[in-house]
Amino acid sequence: MYRKIFFLAALVALFGTVQACAGERTPEVKAVDVYPSGAIMYFEIAAGKTVDLELPLTIDPESIRFQLSGTARILDSSMRTVAQVGWVPSALADLAEEVERARTEKDRLSARLEALEQARKHLEAAVPEISSPGDLEAYIDGALSKRETIALKTAETTEALSDARTQYEILEGELKSRLPRENDKMRVLTLETVGEGTIGILAWTSDAVWQPAYQLYLNSETGLIEGTLQAVLSQKTGLDWNGDISLHTVRPRQDLVTPQLDPLVVDYREHFFRDAGELQMRGTEMLKAAAPELSGRVDEGLSDVRMETSGFVPGSGDKTNLDIGVFSIPASMELVCVPEIADEAWTVATIEELDRAILRAAADLYIDGKQTGTTILEAASMGERMVIPFGKTPLVTASREEL
């Protein structure tokens, strides 16, 4: 009777736990706005139900905001922190399995070594029953053979255990270095919603960075520079990104206040901002007309340049390169000789007037398909002049001679 009651109680506890956790899930990241240091992630759920959303601690709880569509409304919301021992991001699932296999192998070899040590001790402590000299000789021969076997297996197991420990430590260290901070805990956001439509959730994380990278190809015959702009992203939020990504060059300020303008300079300030606005409008029109391949994915504003791309970025901190677009800029090419600095001439491309903004970034340089080096492009605005050294030309030399 007591056994039946205990079994029923266990079933109730089990199904009660399953029911309580059934609504908990990690939401899919629909879209992301990435800044040089940090990102805003966008999640989306259907209205009309109560959900428990599991969010990693890499998300700032104070930054969470909601966007409602249709007749959707939020009746109640709450957040709590729960233990989540053993949780790893999906991008690290394979590595976590490798760590577990390495740990199992290490434990198996450790147990085998301990068993061999126990066998050696038992063999030493054994007291044989000797009734004749022949029995003693046979016992000694058998004991020596067993000791040799145990010693050989012990040496082999010790070496294998050392290798297994090293392998385990390497894999475990790699896993720990790629896990998001405080991965043993999760925040559970509970939302009670009604109506029809969707509820968007925006949340800020500091565990994301990005930087631009260029590849510039110079055609020595035409002087045309064909460029590729890429985004190098890395995020360690624990949530994979797989969708639309907006890249920003400036993070929004959190300490803005209305400026108190001196009456003597009000006219000047208004004139300045009016001219800047006109410049932005002219710049956007020129950008769209000059580079149709890239212009549809770039929005150049007064304070920020926003670029659109899409792709998969794992939440394990791995660097990911995403293509933003291609462009072409006409330039004039010349060979510059400075004997005081170097004997070889430099191939220099000059762009008299940029038709787009250039971001400060590393650039791989190519002449006629052959890589010549890497440089750092300084930030430049549309309309500015830019000079890019594409590398040395060993076939053209110059020397300085005293007259």
| Secondary-structure class | alpha+beta
| Tally of strands | 18
Order of helices and strands: HEEEEEEHHEEEEHHEEEEEEEE
Q: Largest sheet, described in full?
A: 11 strands, mixed
The share of residues in helices is 25-40%
Shape: flat
Unreliable stretches (pLDDT < 50, length at least 5) are: 1-23, 263-292
| Distance linking N and C termini | 116 Å
What's the Cα radius of gyration? 34 Å
Oligomeric form: single chain
The domain count comes to 3
Portion in beta strands: 35-45%
Number of helices: 5
If you average the pLDDT, what whole number results?
A: 78
Question: What's the topology here?
Answer:
Elements: H1 2-21, E1 24-25, E2 29-35, E3 37-46, E4 50-56, E5 65-68, E6 73-83, H2 93-125, H3 133-178, E7 185-194, E8 198-218, E9 224-235, E10 241-248, H4 266-290, H5 292-295, E11 298-300, E12 305-313, E13 320-330, E14 332-336, E15 344-351, E16 361-367, E17 370-377, E18 386-397
Parallel strand pairs: 1-4, 2-10, 8-16
Antiparallel strand pairs: 2-3, 3-8, 4-7, 5-8, 6-7, 8-9, 9-13, 10-12, 11-12, 14-15, 15-18, 16-17
